Amino acid sequence: MRKRHAILRSGLLLLAAWGACVQAAQPQHTWSGVERIVAVGDVHGDFDQFVKTLRAAGGVDKKLNWSAGKTHLVQVGDVLDRGPDSRKVMDLLMKLEVQAAEAGGAVHALIGNHEEMVLRGDWRYVNAAEKKSFGGEEGLRKAMAAEGRYGRWIRGHNAVIKINDVLFLHGGLSPKYAGKSLDELNRGIRDGLGKGGMGRDSAGPLWYRGLACGDPGEIQQTMETILKTHGVAHVVIGHTVANEITPSLNGRLILIDVGISRVYDGPACCLAIEKGTFFAVTAGQPKVELEMVAPVREKSPDR
Ligand SMILES: [Mn+2]
């Protein structure tokens, strides 16, 4: 009898230990050996433009099923707000997450500042039609709660990931965060979701614009720290709208928020990295290899 108790107790202890492990498990944030990566900037509730962009990159078929095999799709955050159809975008991403994993690929829906805002209850940018799609404010609140279908989904995501030699995130890393590890950054943001913390910090990874439009000398210095800390050659960011996929610093920094949502009226365009070569992919156009090294300006002739 006593022996049976002992066995039962050690079994329970094992179960408890396993439970603690599961709870402490963080989602994977680093991948290597990925042949093809597609990265899409801020979607802002525009389902049609998102689908158009995915189709251009060969991500989905006519029935909106995953058709990109082992490709990794990165969406750098800000699926929510401004436009009316974020719910549909999230539903599609949820489906593709499963299908891509089954095909040996992956979908990474990163956390942006608008995900952080909506989870915190800052709904200043929530479209009226978007609220309606959740059945009103109470429905939205439930859906975005920690145990709600969408709130749980977002809370399980990363904010910063590394694939091959490329770092992906929404806003940027200021000097305050440039030397922090992926564990520290992702844990810091996830732990604060719904409350604030690192995800709300204007110098934090979700909000910082200093890499996209700051002092060139400071950018250079911060970028050096980031590249060294993470052992990467490139940093890809959204959040700050540019007219086109824009490489700077000889391709070390790439801006991919081209404002694909109709609220910005930008093109259905994304970044594709194929065996280390960078392309801009735009709907209805042949893909264009990015000019990573800025052309040397010819000296103006003396007159
Ligand atoms: Mn943003």
Offer a few descriptive terms:
Purple Acid Phosphatase, chain A, domain 2; six-stranded mixed β-sheet; alpha/beta; binds manganese (II) ion; 303 residues
Task: Characterise the protein shown here.
There is one protein chain. This protein has 303 residues and is of the alpha/beta class. The protein has nine helices and twelve strands. The strands form two sheets. It has a six-stranded mixed beta sheet. Strands 4-3-2-10-11-12 form a six-stranded mixed beta sheet. The longest helix has 23 residues, at 2-24. The chain is globular and about 85 Å long. The termini are far apart. The mean pLDDT is 93. Bound molecules: manganese (II) ion. Manganese (II) ion (MN) is lined by residues 42, 78, 112-114, 170, 239. The site of manganese (II) ion has 7 residues, from α4.
Which structural class fits the helix and strand makeup? alpha/beta
CATH architecture: 4-Layer Sandwich
Global morphology: globular
Roughly what fraction of the amino acids lie in strands?
A: 15-25%
Question: How many helices does DSSP assign?
Answer: 9
What are the secondary-structure elements, in order, as H or E? HEEHEHEHHHHEEHHEEEEEE
- Give the C-alpha Rg: 21 Å
The number of domains is: 1
Q: How many beta-strand segments?
A: 12
Identify the strand order in the major beta sheet. Answer: 1-5-6-7-9-8
- As for the CATH topology, it is Purple Acid Phosphatase, chain A, domain 2
Question: In the CATH hierarchy, what is the superfamily?
Answer: Metallo-dependent phosphatases
Which CATH class?
Alpha Beta
What share of the residues lie within helices? 25-40%
